[in-house]
Structures are given as C-alpha cells and as structure tokens.
Write a structure and sequence with these properties.
The structure is a single chain. The chain has 489 residues and is α/β, with parallel strands linked by helices. Strand 13 and strand 14 form a beta hairpin. Helix 11 runs parallel beside helix 12. Helices cover 34% and strands 22% of the residues.
C-alpha cells in the first residue's frame, strides 16, 4: 500500500533480525519461487518508509495497491515482499513470498509474533488519552526493561497486526493502543493482542455518530476484556461515571484483579496533590498504599490521570513502579497532541500549544483548562483556535455550543473557530471573546496569524480531518518570517 498511517517507522530495538525468512514463510503459509535466506529487521506496509532490512507487505487498499510499489520497496532496501501475485517491474529472482491474501498474511504474521512473545503485554483503550498513556508506558517501562509500543496511532484492524508483527521476541514489555469507532471492533483486536493488563482511560462523548448512548460506548470499550489472558488485570478510571459498568464487565469476564486510579478515596492509585507549572506537573500520589512524589514532563490534570493509570498498569505488569515514575519527568507530548513551543515574533514571542491532531468535547475542555492555567506575559492573551469536532452525530450542534461553558471557566481571552459545527460555539460566546470564524482552516489560518501578537499563548485544536495543522504552520511561518527579517536587518 502506498500510504497507510505513519510516515516514519522506528527500527527494532536490537541489531539481530526480527524475522528469519523460514519463520515468515511458515507463519503466512507462503510459497516461494526461489530459496529464501534473508533476515528482516522490520515489517512495513508503506513503500515510502521502506529501508534496508525491511520486509514489505503489499496490502491492497481502497485507493492504492501495494503490489504497484513492491519494486520501489526492494529498491529502497527491503529484503523481501509478501505478495498475492507477481508485481510489475520486479525481476524474476526478486525475493517474494506468495500468499492468497496479503492482509490475512499480515494477521498471521502478527499472530506468530504474539505467540512467540515472552513479554508482559499491556493494552490501552479509552475515549481520549490512549496515545499519551501508551507513550507514558513506553517511556516508563523502558526504565526497567526492553519495551516495545506501537507507533503513532497504529491501533486499528491493520495497525494492530502490523504492530504485533514488529514486536521483538526479546522485549520484556509490549504496549498496544487499541482504537475503535464501532461496536465489535475491539473484540477482534483484543483477541489478537491477548493482553495481561487492559487499561481503559475513560468513557466520554466520542464517536457518538456511531453509538446510541455513552453506555453503549462503555460496553464497546469493555470488549478489551474479551482477549485478556488468564489471571490478567483490568485498570480503570475510578473517577469516570462508567467505572462501575466497566468493573462489572470485567468481573463478568472472570477478571478478579480490578485496579483503579483517580482522586477517589478508594482508588488504588490516588492523586493526593498536584502543582501545575507551565511545562510540567508535580504530583503527589498514593499507589497501592505507598506515597510517592514525582514529576510529569507536561502540564494538565488529565495527563496526570493518564500517568497514574500508566503507573498502575506498569505495576500490574510486574514492573518497578518507582523507576517508572521517575522516568515520567522526561515525558513529552506526541506531535499534535499538546507540544508546547516558544515562537519569536515582533516585540517578543508567543507560546504555541499544538493540539491539532484530534478533538472531542472532553479533550477540548482539557485543552481550555490547561490554557487557562498558563500565564501570558504583559499584554498577552489566552487564545483558543478550534476546528469542528467530528463523529458526534445529532448531538454535534449542542456539544459544540456547550464548550462555551468550559471556555468561560478557563478565562480564555479570545476564540477563533472554523467549520459549520464550530459556528454553534462561536455564536454562543460573548461578543468580547469572538476572534473570527471561517469555513475551514485554510481561511482561518491567515486571520489567526494576523491577530496574534507578542505575549499571547495560543492553543490550536480540532479533529484531524479539519487540518488545523494549517493554523500551526501559519504561526510557525509568521515566526520564521520575523527571524528572517531580523537577520536581514
């Protein structure tokens, strides 16, 4: 497939091959025209990411057919390709493994990766916070042993088997983010991953277009328990209103070790005190009776809750929780999910908080709260730039308008919006807070760039399909132009 998902793939964690030819051929029940003796250091499905040592799987997608790019992958250094037919422009002696269906072959390879694994496996799902929690676990667990986690958002029906196929046999820990937007999807993913620990961050109003209620979303998330290994553990957010429903679902699946995190006095990982600073959170918590103080390298109570869930999951996976907690001081938000950047502009600088990757009602509320806790320099403002939140169904207009309450409580100074749904929010705001509204991010970006001045703190957020990264790019371009003028002058 020419382009699916991530544009960058990390190499495996050791120099030895991830897969030997004979093991791949056996796992996918493949046929070869010639003897295969290669060793692959990684598995890829995008020819543009192919590097020396990769195994390329030629998937056929709705737009692109990976068979059209086998030659490019091999030219880039791929040691072999899994194909369903002879690709064009490949020599007769090309290292090809023939199968009936390349997607099923990818699933089989992922299954083989899971079977051979000796790792403690943690699976993470939830309405929001999946990726940040997964990245916290990657960082924390790596302090105690070799750790693998799936890249970016490789959390769906093709991303999960690909990630399992990349799981090194030597890893002590494996962390897998599992996503869904329809009922039934998590069942298959959980049964592939077969986690020892299943963590659900929260249940919130996300993907309501595909569900009749929040209760049905909770039930769909609870499908993660269907693949859990015997004697496995469930880690749940005790502050979430669906905690009891999820705990009951876990018990129904025979899970006896149910752990919880939050501010609730009964939580196994309980937040006692939090000091939020511009670029970090200083945390005091009690984890299974032990009082701990540690630092998370990003601000925001919602991230702190994710960190508590991650530490509880790490403990359930038999890791050293103190070493894991100490590692979180180095945590940084993934690209587009809260990265903070100081940008020089005329008269000083602005602070850009890039939340452009995605948005939901609860995550926009979190973003507004974090922005409200930050202090602009003299003359600066707290500026919130928002694009439509997608997949909210008939409730979308009301949910967009309801954000006005979060914005007022956070004491935001100015709001810029784009998209037809964000018009409902824009109209619900007091006139003094209305920066501008535009049809899309292309039209909004220059309006934001023209309105921003030194001292401002700007958060940009919206569903990925709204391309709010255009606003982020416009602000970075504004800063680059200022730097160029300064150098020229």
């Amino acid at each position: 497939m020419r382009h699916i998902g991530q544009s960058k793939v990390l190499r495996t964690m050791n120099s030895s091959p991830l897969w030997q030819a004979e093991d791949v051929i056996r796992a996918v029940r493949g046929q070869c025209l010639h003897e295969q003796t290669w060793g692959a250091t990684n598995v890829v499905i995008d020819s543009r990411t192919a590097q020396v040592g990769d195994l390329f799987v030629a998937l056929q997608g709705p737009v692109h057919d990976g068979h059209d790019h086998v030659a490019a992958a091999i030219e880039a250094g791929a040691v072999a390709a899994i194909v369903a037919r002879q690709p064009a422009q490949t020599p007769p002696d090309a290292p090809l493994v023939f199968v009936e269906d390349t997607f099923k072959a990818l699933e089989s390879l992922g299954q083989a990766g899971r079977i051979r694994a000796t790792s403690n496996i943690i699976a993470v799902t939830g309405s929001v916070g999946k990726t940040s929690t997964k990245e916290m676990l990657r960082l924390a667990l790596a302090a105690t042993g070799e750790t693998y986690a799936n890249e970016g958002s490789l959390n769906n029906h093709w991303g999960v088997p690909l990630s399992l196929a990349r799981l090194p046999a030597t890893a002590h820990y494996g962390v897998f983010e599992l996503g869904m937007n329809h009922a039934g999807e998590l069942t298959a993913l959980s049964k592939q991953v077969r986690p020892h620990v299943a963590l659900i961050t929260n249940i919130e109003a996300v993907h309501l277009e595909f569900f009749p209620s929040l209760e049905s979303i909770a039930d769909a998330k609870a499908e993660i328990f269907l693949g859990i290994e015997p004697q496995g553990a469930a880690v749940l957010n005790r502050d979430n209103r669906y905690y009891a429903r999820l705990a009951a679902a876990a018990k129904t699946r025979g899970i006896k070790n149910i752990l919880s995190f939050g501010r609730d006095g009964k939580a196994d990982a309980r937040l006692i005190d939090l000091v939020t600073e511009p670029e970090r959170s200083v945390i005091t918590a009690e984890i299974q009776g032990k009082r701990m103080s540690f630092t998370l390298g990003a601000p925001g109570e919602h991230l702190v809750m994710n960190a508590l869930g991650a530490l509880l999951a790490a403990m359930a996976a038999n890791s050293d929780v103190e070493a894991c907690a100490n590692a979180l001081a180095r945590y940084q938000q993934p690209k587009g999910r809260g990265v903070i950047q100081n940008l020089p502009v005329s008269g000083g600088e602005i602070v850009l908080i890039d939340e452009s990757y995605n948005a939901s009602p609860v995550s926009v509320g979190f973003a507004a709260r974090v922005l409200g806790q930050m202090m602009p320099t003299a003359g600066g403002r707290r500026v919130l730039v928002l694009g439509d939140m997608r997949e909210l169904g008939d409730t979308s207009p009301a949910l967009h308008a309801a954000l006005a309450k979060d914005i007022a409580e956070a004491k935001i100074d100015s709001v810029f919006c784009c998209g037809p749904m964000m018009r409902h929010l824009f109209d619900a705001l007091p006139a003094a807070l209305r920066g501008a509204h535009a049809d899309d991010s292309t039209a909004l970006a220059p309006l934001v760039a023209a309105a921003i001045h030194a001292g401002d703190i700007v958060t940009v957020k919206g569903s990925n399909s709204m391309a709010m990264v255009k606003v982020v790019t416009a602000l970075r371009t504004l800063s680059s132009a200022h730097a160029a003028r300064k150098m020229a002058g």
